[in-house]
Structure prediction request, 175 residues.
Amino acid sequence: MFKNITYKKKFLFIIVGFVILLMAAYKKNFKSIFEIRSQLSNINKKLNTVDGSYQQIYFLKNEIAQLNDLIGGQTKDPELVQELILDFVTSTDFDINIHDIEDTHVFSDDEFTIYTNVLQVEGDYNTLLKLLHAVEKDFTASKVVCSEFYTEKNYRTSSKKLFLKLILQNYEKNI
Prediction:
């Protein structure tokens, strides 16, 4: 039977048989080897990231502890802070009037006690802006968390007055 077939056809049969044999070998053996190899490389990558993550967690915990100490470390007596705010605002050379100062608001959670002071000051825009800058830059007993400019109209005199509302907070770390 093979004696009547030409060498070209024999060569073609051998090539086709080799391709079929190669596909069967790949499907039976080599495919699983390649899958296992890719899984192994993925696991090694994950293992390398896990080894580095313990060190990252340690550094992050230290950084959080430092920030908590920094935030909680600026605490003074709440009444003293309110007096310091008034003293700082009145000791500046700005032409302003203190319109209102509210009682200190105290909020506590598991980690911190937050003291909030609200101060309302009357004056012209440039003066109030300079005061706001001075309080943010130079006043260290408390931090400005919010500021708001607003106007009120006096209907008897038909005049408007400009106010600056400052909200200042300081923190105390609960032990």
Notes: The mean pLDDT is 86. The chain has three helices and five strands.
